[in-house]
Design brief:
The complex is a heterotrimer of chains A (466), B (219) and C (246). Chain A is of the alpha/beta class. Chain A contains 22 helices and 13 strands. A six-stranded parallel β-sheet of chain A has the order 1-10-7-4-2-3, sandwiched between helices. Chain A has a four-stranded mixed β-sheet with strand order 8-5-6-9. In chain A, strands 11-12-13 form a three-stranded antiparallel β-sheet, with no helix packed on it. The longest helix of chain B is centred in the first third of the chain and has 14 residues. The radius of gyration of chain B is 21 Å and the shape is globular. Chain B starts with a helix and ends with a strand. The radius of gyration of chain C is 18 Å and the shape is globular. In chain C, the strands form two sheets. In chain C, strands 2-1-3-4 form a four-stranded parallel β-sheet, with helices on both faces. Classes of the chains: A alpha/beta (466), B alpha/beta (219), C alpha/beta (246). Chains in contact: A-B, A-C. At the A-B interface, helix 2, helix 3, helix 4, strand 1 and helix 8 of A face helix 1, helix 5, helix 6, strand 9 and strand 10 of B. The complex binds iron/sulfur cluster (SF4). The site of iron/sulfur cluster has 14 residues of chain A, from helix 14.
Amino acid sequence: MRNEFAEAARHEVANSQLRANIRNATHTIRAKREEAVAEVPDWEQLREAGRRIKERTMRNLDRHLEQLERSVTAAGGVVHWATEAADANRIVGDLIVGAGAREAVKVKSLATDEIGLNRALAARGIEARETDLAELIVQLGEDRPSHILVPAIHRNRGEIRELFRRTLPGNEQLTDDPAELAEAARRFLREKFLSAKVGVSGANFAVAETGTICILESEGNGRMCTTLPEVLITVMGIEKVLPRFADLEVMLQLLPRSSTAERMNPYTSLWTGVTPEDGPREFHLVLLDGGRTKVLGDADGRAALHCIRCSACLNVCPVYERTGGHAYESTYPGPIGAILTPQLTGFTQGNSLPWASSLCGACYEVCPVKIDIPSILIHLRSRINREVDGYGGGGERLAMGLLARAFARPGRYERAQRFGRWLSRPLTREGWISRRLPGALGRWTDVRDLPAPSAETFREWWAQRR
Amino acid sequence: MSSRELILGRVRAALADVADDEPASWIYDRDADEHSRYARAGSRDPEALAALFADRCGEYRATVTRAERAGLGPAIAAACARHGASSLVVPTDLPEAWRAPGVEWREDHPSLDVHALSGFDGALTGCAVAIALTGTIVLDAGEAQGRRALTLLPDLHICVIGEEQIVEGVPEAFERLAPAARSGRPLTFISGPSATSDIELKRVEGVHGPRRLEIVIAG
Amino acid sequence: MRIALFTTCVADTLFPGAGIATVELLERLGHQVSFPRAQTCCGQMHLNSGYEAHALNIARSFVEVFDDAEIDAVVAPSGSCVAMVRDQYPGLVARAGDLRLQAAVARLVPRTFELSEFLVNELGIVDVGAYYPHRVTYHPTCHSLRLLRVGDAPLRLLRAVRALTLIALDDAQGCCGFGGTFAVKNADVSTAMLADKMRAIQATGAEVCTAVDSSCLMHIGGGLRRERAGVRVVHLAEILASTEAA
Ligand code: SF4
């Protein structure tokens, strides 16, 4: 099996502008998140409550989905079920065409990114206009998102100014002041909001008990997309359901502080079906499986579905910090992407991602719903080795097998120690090997000296001493 | 088989390890223990709550002023003057006492179209509840709040909050909002003016929603 | 206290000084130290590389060696190996469904300690009577920090060492990029992480970089040697074992 991540990462790591942009942004947000979290005395209890809410929900997902469907329907909404990406794309496209529209305004949604909705709609001649500032930057630049919350995190203000000057009419004099850049986006999108017939959104949460959909945002584009158009279509992964309205009191404390390090994000909108004289006249909820039931089927990997997409794990990840999001080649980069992508795709994509981690544990420490990402990474490594393809290849499997045999018997282990010492002696100077070695070890010795087996092992010293 | 049946079937198959009689959800009053018992109620008195709320909103660069209930008209007029706003759109059930002289008032009835709404200098509403710890106001389409577009399109939102509407934390707000949610009314949580952190993860105020937020606490 | 030393395969084979220092230190503090000779490895590399079945076999031998009523505590000069036992063994053996093994692990977990947390939290000692006349910077290794939560135990021990000048490390909690086979499987990323760590270490002007894990020190030390940076890596146990007389 190829190590796609390592190959892609090589290019990204070599891009010093990219590394500087991402380092700068992630270090800023890390410090702010820590502050925002530190002022909440019951933060740990909230995290644990969040974890338990999610765990219970997943373990009874069928019941909650059925209840959600009943509640939404009772409130005047229409529920659609999509087994996979193509179904969801077709449903959304049909609804837009049915509304007599050729375009739709969209508020940032990972689910629709995952299923490639914009591309599928474009193929039917429907324009989907992203309205979130970072998504707009990505869309105008024909770029790919690199972060789940701030898809244009890999771009700095200077690069964004150039893009806007080039693509947004009337902005030739634009400076790189972020406030001015935001203003340019506001002017560009205003008319689109006012004239849009169809809005498309994702969902942060959906409450089964009441049929209420909840989205969190900052700019107001979410409010625009979910209130002004006549028809609103929400696409959500089935794992986003929450059983009770009261569950939101936990999630709305955990999510903003973990994602943008704010006490509360500027706007959170909740709506239930359709409301007469207020907002869309039609509401459609598309419930997407798209591999989620595969994740659900692995009791040791299931917790990946608990994710509330805050992006804290990306922001603290030392690997993400060096590579950015593109190297993951997935809608979901970073630690959460490493555990979600291979599972969602039934191990047909992203199989090198569980190895894209030094297992430092920073992600687990910040995750607001306490997903033990390192343990799931380890679990998936074994699953992939076992079920898909020996990831490290035959050489590694052989070496690991031999080592395991040695470790299983002290006698064999001691012989292996002596053999290693004999083998490395000609290369050893002052206890270290400085020469470049062939094969996998070469990737160590390219940049680091390698310690050689000691002239006297600890156990030899011990035996001597007694 | 329909997609619905297919998905629900897959979910059930995936959850073969879960016992049928397991509780389906986590309920605070029933399930919280020392590891998960987060704070559900604060202990600050009304005066401290108002001060904290004002302080937190201020950090979002919303302007917060306080007024006696009898003096709301002048306080609102002053807010308009600060922003040079001379025309306000309001919900039909806005209290008479809030309608300051010297400002042009227009009720959103029959519903104005989006371009008309955009043309006003500002919108004036009340709210359902306010959260002190996070500096948040919540609208639930109830009394003196109107429909959602009203507070979205004009560039200035002036919101009047009764002191008794301020709660300490998020859970207390949810308790008060539950009836509105159950009856299907839309809720909007607003914490400061619209903002973005999309450029280098630095917060900038003012994107699509109202760029200016004026809060008047009535006590 | 009867302490069994788990020296770890890395220290045993590559850095015996860390094991020797642990023995000398604990004996100097008046404890009886044993070295069960049948020990080899905890199985961490196998588990973390995706060879769960091998890891389980190795864990089985580990438990056999150390699940002994005559032992009050198992102490290792390694955060990550102890984290393997405390954090990963319970799940590993539970998945294997071996009840006897599960019970043995349950006995072992509360008695297994990394050296610095053992000294500070279990023995309640901060000043171990060490003398080390050098400028030292301390790198908190990921597993000792986030899995074992040793907190500032190593720093408290270092602050009590006579003649030692402790210099704070910038962005100390950043991973050094070792991560076992990660260092070769994702060599470019690992190297970028290591470069940042080495830069921070060199900026301190310290002569010595210390930590509680030989494996991370092997990574950092290997990089520093290659750059001829003039900074040595020394395991915390070796600093604590040093005395004026020696
Ligand atoms: S895994 Fe946890 S930390 Fe990462 S995005 Fe999801 S909720 Fe946030």
